[in-house]
Amino acid sequence: MPYTKKHKMNIRHKILQSASQAFRASGIKAVSVPQIMSGAGLTHGGFYAHFDSKEQLVAEACKSAMEDTVARLGSVAEQTADGQKLTAVIESYLSATHRDSAEQGCIMPALAGEIARSSEDIREVFTDEVSRFLSFVSGLAGQDKDKSIALTATMVGSILLARSINDPELSDKILSVCRADLKQRTAGPVS
Q1: Which positions does the record tag as DNA-binding (predicted)?
Q2: What is the residue-wise DSSP string for 120-148?
């Protein structure tokens, strides 16, 4: 008996979740298709029933990972009073929890360096997802796109540096200083 369309969609979702977590944790090149399938609780042989290539999987995993990030940060914003939504997102993004959970975190600091050396198809999807994130940030506090770009680049760079070093105190300091700086830069005018 053939699988239902719903079952096939659920399996595809499991593969995407496994891939996006594995890519964020270890990088694209370091993760094999068999590892991804094993992480989804599946055998390697079923991969090509869902994806044409690892490249297609990478592109779709980028999209899935950014959807997760925007949804998670959107939830943070929804639970916060108006006027504090952007601050809450900054605090959540530049947190020790985000730094220490690359496999669950934003794809930008986890994979941007590797994506820069990927195919045009993957870079196009990644570009679309960065644009999605920029729109999300600009919508939080009515920021214009230029300010959203600067804010996002600072957040991504801060997480990237904080994850890259082996000095826990300096890593914490990077997060706290950048959090404070961004909150000050995005605060409304003082009356």
Answers
A1: 32-51
A2: HHHHHHHHHHHHHHHHHHHHHHT--HHHH
